[in-house]
Amino acid sequence: MRKSTQRAIKEAKQLRETAYHEAGHAVAAVVMGLGLRKKGVTTLTTDGNLGYTYVRQPRKTQDGDMRYVVVLLSGGVAVGILKGEKPHETQDLYGAGTDLEYATAALCWIPDMEAKYKLRRLLYETAQELLQDNWAAVEAVAGMLIECRSLSGNQVEAVVSQTRGQLQYKGGQ
After folding, report:
1. Which residues, at least 6 apart from 161, have a Cβ–Cβ distance to it below 8 Å?
2. What global pTM score does this model have?
């Protein structure tokens, strides 16, 4: 196989995983009631990241922090579901190492590290359940990101609204 073909295959795989990762964040932000900024979500970045989701920051409350952590963890969870795998939440979560660091930092109001990790684990399970229940939206947003590379917050919200209740998760098939 030619190097250019190998590179194209690798880039297509990376784009697909990035699209699902960002779609996971975007759908979770909408479902968790945080919403997205006007810029929405993109797989086009110049800062070294593969993609970015512009989530509206919640008010600084414990509830807001927990909802934000679910959104942060949802990127890696989406890629795990796509691959039919269930990684342990302390793993890198398919390029989500930074997301995991931010998720831990968002729980700064919990002084005990063991309690913080226990809550983060519960929020990780919440992210898994949320994305499985809204998998049709994740697939639709990811497909649009692969095609268009960027979506506005309003476009993502419309997709989530249109796909609500269309459970299509089939265990990673």
Report:
1. none
2. 0.86
DSSP-assigned states of every residue in 25-77: HHHHHHHTT--EEEEEEES--SSS-S-EEEEPPPPSSHHHHHHHHHHHHHHHH
Radius of gyration (Cα) for the chain, nearest Å? 16
DSSP secondary-structure letter at 164? T
Q: What is each CA distance from 142 to 5, 43, 76, in whole angstroms?
A: 23, 10, 13
* DSSP-based three-state secondary structure for 173: coil
Query: Residue 111 sits in a domain of what CATH number?
Result: 1.20.58.760
Residues of the chain falling short of pLDDT 50: 90, 167-173
Q: Does any domain span residue 94?
A: yes
Range of the domain at 140: 9-157
* 111 in a structural domain: yes
* Domain presence at residue 168: no
Residue 73 near residue 55, CB atoms below 8 Å? no
Token representation of residue 110: 């919990």
Six-digit token string for 66: 């927990």
103-111 LR contacts (CB < 8 Å, sep 24+) = 103/69, 103/72, 103/73, 106/65, 106/68, 106/69, 106/72, 107/65, 107/66, 107/69, 109/62, 109/65
pLDDT at 99: 87
